[in-house]
Amino acid sequence: MTNYRVVVATVAAVSVVAGCSASTTSPGAQPSSPSAKAPTASSVPATPAASHGTEGALATVPWSQVGPGWTLAEWSPVTPHRPGEQRPPDEPTSETADTTLFLVDPTGNRYTITTFGPGGNLALADWSGDGSHALFTRAGMTPDSAISVDLHTGAQTTIPVTGYPRYTRPSGTALLVSTSFNGNEPGTLKRVDLKGNLQFTYPTADLGGAGQFGGDYAESPDGTQLVLGTANLGNEVVPRKDNSLVVMGNDGKVVRTLPAPMVSAMCGPIKWWSPGSVLIRCSSQHGSSSQLWELPLDGSSPTPLTAVNSGQEDDPGFGGDIGDTDAWKLPSGTFLQSLGACGTVFLSKLTPDGHTTRVKVPGVSDDVFVSGAANDRLLVRGQVGCSGTTSLVSYDPASNTSTVLLGPPVNGGGVSEALLYPTPES
Q1: In order of start, what are the domains of the chain with their CATH numbers?
Q2: Its domain of life (predicted)?
């Protein structure tokens, strides 16, 4: 089964260097209720405001204030360019420039946590639930090691792992390491300590009769439960099963199996959606259609979040949105990470009938990668202007205003990764 988070990250990496193009998209999000007023053309700023935050050292971080709305971000002085675009001879490159991990507060004040040497190609994989550590893996390949960074000291510790690691919830005292279904080999899920020593191997070959583990899972915020998706390919290697998702305790015991809510589909969990449900994405077994669902853990009927997306650009209900991979609930509506043609990603808003409309973030190009939601705002990464650079932007959908926190025009360079302080909603 496809690992949807890996797919989104890969698509985003392509999109942020794709350059600017003429917009062919629909207008921005509509008001969530008749009483809400959409910003007029004259009131929408042509460019986002730039944060006037300051840069400080690790020793000056106000740790008592760090919490929801704070962000970890990878930044470097390297300016992203479109493929084939000529670089100035004296411009920094990934082979010559360091990468800095910044901790950024909601107003744009930033603090240097640590730096990585040139050519590391590190991906910011997770932030521990207690806010004390960040996890990095090598981008673009199945990791054989991870780097855990102590955010209070900046110390980096290499951990041997084989697969895709994440901190355990709620506090990050260990790692969950997954691998995806490969050929006729089930995906695996293991728990290791922070030195890489095996603590527990989850039984993933049959999952209570539901089938082989596909590689996608979601862990509850309190760490007591997991929801695993099965490969469920429906071919001679992996037969079709009606039960496509499995609720499992952190002791490896299957609590219950849950049916795939979309007929003839493969479904995988994205994240916890409410205390008693997860957000899942289902893709048709034959074809390109997909759909997001809210799946209750108690076995009661699932609720479709979106209508069925045909995966075609000319689908009239989705207007260029060929699939949605994540969603966030805000007072001003439900917003989605949407996929477009040619490897692009953008922000959409859910309509009352389950379709989507594209949201134009002021001053940001059409390619937008959503990093999460906090304090009624969305944190996004996108190109500001047509310089080909990537900035970290705080967007308020209710007022349709945005503020650049990091990257151009605040301090140049580019922001390659960002994670919000871990909360169930982010």
Answers
A1: 4-15+47-81+91-420 (2.130.10.10)
A2: Bacteria
